[in-house]
């Protein structure tokens, strides 16, 4: 994990912005000897910061999803960095032609990911032991070079904060939302109708249709994201939100390695007592914008629900 | 400085509900209902073991019987370790539509899917030997609009000969002929109930998969892999003894 302090919006007197990310291997994965299929990273450049998390699918059919999730995060942060450097040139405080540009950004991320998948497969062709557990039909398709992306299947959540705007984008399960100073939330939408452990994925042919986003010019005090294992470890949305606010408050109050170690230690305990899944939490927070992290859930107002915001496919 | 996250509350395991939907109409009386009773009773220890061995999810069981009307054996899904199968009797007509209606009512965050935040897709296992006697199609259409039903692993066992059970009714329920099995003998039925219950419990409590139909697909793939185990008893070679 990297933890970085970063100068705030334009450095113009706003609170410094801090980015963080933590991933722990799931208790179930440890018990089964399986790799961690989550991945997270953040980047900071100039007065912008971005974070991304990805959750490779656990089913045997997605046997290279650990590589898939890493490549998804790398693909997203590369595309977002290029986008922000272009859009933020000269201190631009908003994005003109937002819808079109957001759609293009998502296409660039998918394209980056597909290229990485193709490159990885050329360097590391499927091995017979990888294909053996699959059905005959699926083995046949992969051997013929069809649906190869499915082996690398993963979700992806990415968000960026710039001086005059923030945006988040998401394909698959997990959560991403921003909190404003008054405690109200803006959440990145997910494709409706998904319940239980069913997700959309970067590996689907129609990935662009399931890749939703939220663009906002409301200044957030925090932009947070987590893979589904985090929310699935809680008995309710309210419990999940209390925890995530605690995370924002902790990093806002003390953006050092100690907070990261506390969170990592707690997530390792949480996966044992909760979902058993790999867990990732990442975000960008404004320094000193929250009170005592132990009381954060109580002092922040606003909705504790994650009602999807006005999103766009 | 104490760890600020230690006071976090509300952490819990995920759950997967296995639904048994059992025909207890008059035509099931005798050998058939006896075989169902024995098979479910005998598979419960194995489901308990799967639940206990799976440190990441708890398996709960719900049971619905239907004949002249339908009724839940328990008011809510019970953890596998607490679920007992009360041997049921067979009598009355085959109100499958009523069963669908009651299933739809409970496949809701306000009912059996309360722990929805961490719930896995349910597995629904229908066992019947006859033609529905009520308007099941209308209730099935309503049930199909239920998102929990949509993502569920669905499997049906036809108990008896082709002339007795309308496979089309069961294919309508599962959405695929690959998830409809036929038990020609009590022994075949027992093996199928075991195989389906165990496979559904394992597949149902796996981590995320892509697409609404993917869990059903994973289930039928798993069944196909185990074909050697169940197909011989499902073949006509074993049909001599039948249900008499």
What does this structure look like?
The complex is a heterodimer of chains A (313) and B (244). Chain A is an alpha+beta fold and 313 residues long. Chain A has a single domain (4-299), classed as 4-Layer Sandwich (Phosphatase 2c, domain 1), CATH 3.60.40. Chain A has 10 helices and 12 strands. In chain A, strand 7 (175-180) and strand 8 (185-187) form a beta hairpin. Chain A starts with a strand and ends in a 14-residue tail after the last helix. Chain B has 8 helices and 8 strands, in the order E-H-E-E-E-H-E-H-H-E-H-E-H-E-H-H. In chain B, strands 1, 2, 3, 4, 5, 6 and 7 form a 7-stranded mixed sheet that branches. The radius of gyration of chain B is 18 Å and the shape is globular. Chains A and B meet through helix 1, strand 9, helix 8 and helix 9 of A and helix 4, strand 8 and helix 7 of B. Strand 9 of chain A pairs parallel with strand 8 (209-210) of chain B, so a sheet runs across the interface.
What's the helix and strand layout?
The complex is a heterodimer of chains A (313) and B (244).
Chain A: E1 4-6, E2 17-24, H1 27-32, E3 38-45, E4 48-55, H2 65-87, H3 98-123, H4 128-131, H5 136-143, E5 156-162, E6 165-171, E7 175-180, E8 185-187, E9 198-199, H6 207-210, E10 212-216, E11 220-226, H7 228-231, H8 237-253, H9 257-273, E12 279-286, H10 296-299
Antiparallel strand pairs in A: 1-2, 2-12, 3-4, 4-5, 5-6, 6-10, 7-8, 7-11, 11-12
Helix pairs in contact in A: 2-3
Chain B: E1 14-23, H1 31-53, E2 57-67, E3 69-72, E4 78-79, H2 96-106, E5 123-128, H3 136-144, H4 147-151, E6 153-159, H5 167-174, E7 180-183, H6 186-204, E8 209-210, H7 214-225, H8 227-234
Parallel strand pairs in B: 1-2, 1-5, 5-6, 6-7
Antiparallel strand pairs in B: 2-3, 2-4
Helix pairs in contact in B: 1-6, 2-3, 6-7
